[in-house]
Amino acid sequence: MATALCPGSFDPVTNGHLDIIERTARHFDDVIVAVISNPQKSESLFTLEERQQMLREETTHLDNVRIEFFKGLLVEFAREHDAQAIVKGLRAVSDFDYELQMAQMNQQLSGIDTFFISTSPQYSFLSSSLVREVARFGGDVSSMVPHAVAKRLAERFGEGHNPS
Ligand code: PNS
Prior knowledge:
The protein has helices spanning about 15-25, 50-60, 75-80, 95-110, 130-135, 145-155; strands at about 5-10, 30-35, 65-70, 85-90, 115-120. The chain is an alpha/beta fold.
């Protein structure tokens, strides 16, 4: 039974993330989408519960995928869940440096291997942070995230919100 982790902040989940999760689910018996509870990059837009809920709603068609969260080191979570692989999407060369560092560190810490899947070309420009920025200023993100996520973004940045 080979279990893979798809880790990330998912703030919010994008069509690019879902593409990677779906493709990972074709290659492994069991896939755990590991949502980091406290992203370090910035204050998150959505709570952990919201980020998990959106992922659950968008992955109901994938029987071998489940959504969990983790705190601390990813390799500890991998050990606890007996996962053999970490799977990441690579969008462009600019992703590679940092992803390689993390893959090597995780390998050094625990022996777990990281597998990279090349992002589908239509998603190579896509990131949660850009989606948040576009949505914050009223741009159309309907082709970048699932309908329900676009709706939540519109609500979050809707009436009463003052982008500054
Ligand atoms: O979606 P993101 O924000 O690019 O995901 C980054 C994430 C959560 C996968 C990465 O920051 C991570 O694995 N954090 C957990 C802490 C950890 O294990 N750090 C050592 C990695 S070398």
